[in-house]
Amino acid sequence: MAAAVAAALPWPLRALAASQAPADRAKYSSRAVSLVERALVIDMLAPLKIDFSPEAYADRLGPEQLAMFRASGITGFHSAMGIEGPEAHAQALAYLAAWQGFVGRHSEAFCLVGTAADLDRAKAQGKAAVIMGVQNAEHFRTVDDVKTFHQLGQRCAQLTYNRQTLVGSGATDRIDGGVSDYGAQIIKAMNAVGMLVDVSHCGDRTTLDAIEISAGPIAITHSNCRALNNHPRLKTDEAIRKLAARGGVMGITGVRNFVRDREPTNVDHMVDHIDHVAKLVGIEHVGIGSDADLNGYDDMPADQLKLLRGMYKSSYAFRDKLDTDGFDHPKKIYDLTDALIRRGYSDSDIELVLGGNFRRLLGGIWT
Fold first, then answer.
1. Is the whole-model pTM more than 0.85?
2. Bond prior to 217 in cis (omega within 30° of 0)
3. Residue 163 pLDDT > 60, yes or no?
4. Cβ neighbours of residue 206 under 8 Å, at least 6 residues apart?
5. Can you tell me the distance from the alpha carbon of 300 to that of 318, in angstroms, rounded to the nearest whole number?
6. Which residue, 178, 248, 255, 266, is CA-closest to 224?
7. CB 10 within 8 A of CB 59
């Protein structure tokens, strides 16, 4: 989801409050702590901040906020926003400049990702590695723009963001016409430069077309399984099978209405989706894409939360809460790890889910 806003975005004091108490919110097993500490944890949809205030990127983080990132256990943050409309090109340029500047001004805690090896170095140095992405492809005015944006630092692009574009159809479109001829050229250009193709928000036919057209594996960075929850933004078993057959990886999200269509909705229900993918195509094809910043959505300022809810069609089926219980605070990866342990997963399989699978995928694409 991660709101469809252009380039800006800063942070209310909710981040500071959350950073001071995460240890009180859950008691984690020593096995979970050990796993998170040694694993390369990659969240394949994790904006650094979700805040609609202008010039959010200009804020300087204090020691407590920086400590929150370190304590999260996450190394790789795929920071991508939904940028769409006639000004998408200019907004995407501003977005990349703003947030790469933010990372540079906090170089003691963050680093940019150009290759998969940068994720490994960040893990060794105890830093947060930031993968720059855009949840759309409307900023590619021409095929040549793909190379330009790759050179500027973009490493992942969704093909569509919910609605129809020149590339293909979105998940909430009335009709899905699939990937267009122009869209096929965009995919080919992304393959050529080594930019990850993401179909998280694409419609069913567009998703299947992209998997078939791409010369290499692609990703569903943040979605869930429609077999468990009949929601248009989620992926069919057919899509998951075909994604895996080409070597792709699917990230499971913690957005409440994507996890379950009724209450309760908690972190164990997220594991149901991980289970489903693992049983359907193998543990090697599932990871995490939380689709939220470290604090989640529900503690956003009321006016911003209202604005966010208004950006999406009624088919999104938002309920009172947007975050999943137990996956709604900065140490949520520990809660998820303990839930995977309770479900009987081995240490090696948990490490694959936490980031090993996406590390393998990215290592093959970012050449």
1. yes
2. no
3. yes
4. 159, 160, 168, 169, 170, 176, 177, 178, 179, 183, 199
5. 15
6. 255
7. yes
Of the CA atoms within 13 Å of residue 126, those in its CB half-sphere come to 6
Please state, in angstroms and as integers, the Cα–Cα distance from residue 206 to each residue in 73, 141, 247, 312, 359, following that order. 34, 19, 18, 20, 25
Per DSSP bridges, beta strands 110-112 and 196-198 are unpaired
Strands, E, within the chain: which ranges? 42-43, 76-81, 110-112, 128-134, 156-158, 196-198, 219-223, 249-252, 286-288
- Classified as helix, coil or strand, 325 is strand
Angle between helices 88-105 and 144-151 (to 10 degrees): 20
**Element at 61 (helix H, strand E):** none
Cα separation, 83 vs 47, whole angstroms? 13
* pLDDT digit string, tens, across residues 197-215: 999 999 999 999 999 999 9
Residue 286 in tokens: 């599932």
Token output for 41: 């944890």
Long-range pairs for 29-34: beta carbons < 8 A, 24 or more residues apart: 29/338, 29/341, 31/341, 31/347, 32/334, 32/337, 32/338, 32/341, 33/334
| Residue-by-residue DSSP string for 138-195 | TT-SSTHHHHHHHHTT--EEES-SSS--SS--BTT-SS-----HHHHHHHHHHHHHT-
Residue 347, helix vs strand vs coil: helix
96-128 core/surface letters (b: 16 or more CB in 10 A; e: else): bebbbebbeebeebbbbbeebebbeebbeeebb
pLDDT in tens, 53-72: 878 899 899 999 999 999 99
Nearest to 248 by CA among 239, 260, 237: 239
Please choose, from the candidates 271, 276, 275, 277, the residue with its C-alpha nearest in 3D space to the C-alpha of residue 332. Answer: 271
Residue 234 backbone class (left: φ over 0; alpha: ψ -120 to 50; beta: rest): beta
117 contact partners, CB below 8 Å, separation of at least 6: none
Q: How far is 361 from 80, CA to CA, in rounded Å?
A: 18
